[in-house]
Design a protein that fits this description.
With about 160 residues, this protein is of the alpha+beta class. It contains 3 helices and 5 strands; from the N terminus they run αββαβαββ. The protein has one domain: 60s Ribosomal Protein L30, Chain: A (2-Layer Sandwich). A 5-stranded mixed sheet has the order 1-2-5-3-4. Helix 2 packs across helix 3.
């Protein structure tokens, strides 16, 4: 039987994908004590294609960027589930780090990252409120529009 968090995801119409394998010399997550650190996840959808490709402020709309950040957060949760077996073991979303593929003069990177932050609060409630950093970058793997990493406290 699915846990509370997985039931919440289902009620939101969210299906967790198979977690992506690393494409370089790193691991998808590291558990240290009661902390789980998840490597950056780009915005691949369930179909294996990027939700948004290219730069914010250079062809990717804010709406597409927000959807891409939400997709990254879904991919983070897939990695958390792979690490723990049960999303109900998350005691708190501690921190998210967002990387937005942005034109040099694009200033709304925090707004784009809200796609990931809002999902964590939707899914975990107050336990989903987190510290956050968001930066605009020149390029991301596969020309993804967004990449998000996360840190989770484990019960």
């Amino acid at each position: 039987m699915a846990g509370t968090i997985e039931q919440k995801l289902a009620s939101l119409g969210i299906t967790l994908p198979t977690p992506a394998a690393p494409i370089a010399n790193y691991v998808p997550f590291v558990r240290s004590g009661n902390m789980l650190i998840v490597s950056g996840q780009v915005c691949f959808g369930l179909d294996g294609k990027l939700i948004a490709k290219g730069k914010l402020g250079g062809g990717v709309t804010p709406e597409q960027g927000i959807a891409a950040a939400r997709g990254c957060a879904i991919n983070l949760l897939a990695q958390v589930k792979a690490a723990l077996g049960d999303l109900d073991k998350v005691a708190r979303v501690v921190r998210l780090g967002g990387f937005i593929n942005a034109a040099p003069d694009y200033l709304d990177v925090p707004k784009i990252m809200n796609g990931a932050s809002d999902l964590m609060v939707e899914v975990f409630g107050d336990k989903g409120r987190h510290a956050r950093s968001t930066v605009g970058v020149a390029v991301l793997p596969a020309d993804a529009a967004v990449e998000v990493e996360g840190m989770f406290e484990i019960a």
